[in-house]
From TrEMBL:
<feature type="transmembrane region" description="Helical">
    <location>
        <begin position="179"/>
        <end position="198"/>
    </location>
</feature>
<dbReference type="GO" id="GO:0005886">
    <property type="term" value="C:plasma membrane"/>
</dbReference>
<dbReference type="GO" id="GO:0055085">
    <property type="term" value="P:transmembrane transport"/>
</dbReference>
<dbReference type="InterPro" id="IPR051789">
    <property type="entry name" value="Bact_Polyamine_Transport"/>
</dbReference>
<feature type="transmembrane region" description="Helical">
    <location>
        <begin position="97"/>
        <end position="119"/>
    </location>
</feature>
<feature type="transmembrane region" description="Helical">
    <location>
        <begin position="66"/>
        <end position="85"/>
    </location>
</feature>
<keyword id="KW-1133">Transmembrane helix</keyword>
<dbReference type="Pfam" id="PF00528">
    <property type="entry name" value="BPD_transp_1"/>
</dbReference>
<feature type="transmembrane region" description="Helical">
    <location>
        <begin position="237"/>
        <end position="259"/>
    </location>
</feature>
<dbReference type="InterPro" id="IPR000515">
    <property type="entry name" value="MetI-like"/>
</dbReference>
<feature type="transmembrane region" description="Helical">
    <location>
        <begin position="139"/>
        <end position="158"/>
    </location>
</feature>
<feature type="transmembrane region" description="Helical">
    <location>
        <begin position="9"/>
        <end position="30"/>
    </location>
</feature>
<dbReference type="InterPro" id="IPR035906">
    <property type="entry name" value="MetI-like_sf"/>
</dbReference>
<keyword id="KW-1003">Cell membrane</keyword>
<keyword id="KW-0472">Membrane</keyword>
<feature type="domain" description="ABC transmembrane type-1">
    <location>
        <begin position="60"/>
        <end position="255"/>
    </location>
</feature>
<comment type="similarity">
    <text>Belongs to the binding-protein-dependent transport system permease family. CysTW subfamily.</text>
</comment>
Amino acid sequence: MKKLSFSKVMLWFGLLFLYAPMFILVIYSFNESKLVTVWSGFSPKWYGELFKDTQILEAVWTSLRIAFYSSTMAVIIGTMAAFVMTRFRRSWAKLTLSNMITAPLVMPEVITGLSLLLLFVEMADLLGWPAERGMLTVWIAHSTFCAAYVAVVVSSRLRELDLSIEEAAMDLGATRFKTFFLITVPMISPALIAGWFLSFSLSLDDLVIASFASGPGSTTLPMVVFSSVRLGVSPKINALATIIILSVSLVAFLSWYLARRSERKAKEAME
């Protein structure tokens, strides 16, 4: 019998520490009792109660829309910022932009949310826009801090590109605009996809900034969950968390399967 090494023991301990709470949560989502800490029998009734809760369903739809729009805008802004950070010559303007782009990465979310709230209030007083806080202001706020993450991801990919490929395209008559969309964008597409999914998850999970930037009719899912947990954990929240865990697991498994299949096809083509 092989002896377990210290590294393997720590690995299993780390996995148990990370996933045991999720496993317990999934089990208790089928608890028949209203008390989440008291097991009284197996029942899937809380999933039915979850889909009858219009407040949670509306919050889910609102969060998904905001996350989609925010991640798309963040990819556009973050890609332009990354292009400036990596391709423009070194100057005080480039250094200032780089610092401004990466500032949200280290700044507390409370400070970011409060500053955006003050900005929206001041703009409403001076310009009359936005007239009220809602989905639009949450979208702007999420796009702002998600763009910083996209810029970091895309800039790391841009630094690895071979500039001779772009130079060859321009030598053959392609404009810079055409070279960017036909040569550069396909080469950095993995970073763009990664940045989009990262921004989507950050926007979907955000509570602090959304609390400052939101208004009536724009309550996101984390805000609904947080407000309900303050009054006592409902078994419907366990059911909701189980569905989210299952969805994330399916997406992760599908991504792994597609990557493995493409890698296998690449190996077969080389042989």
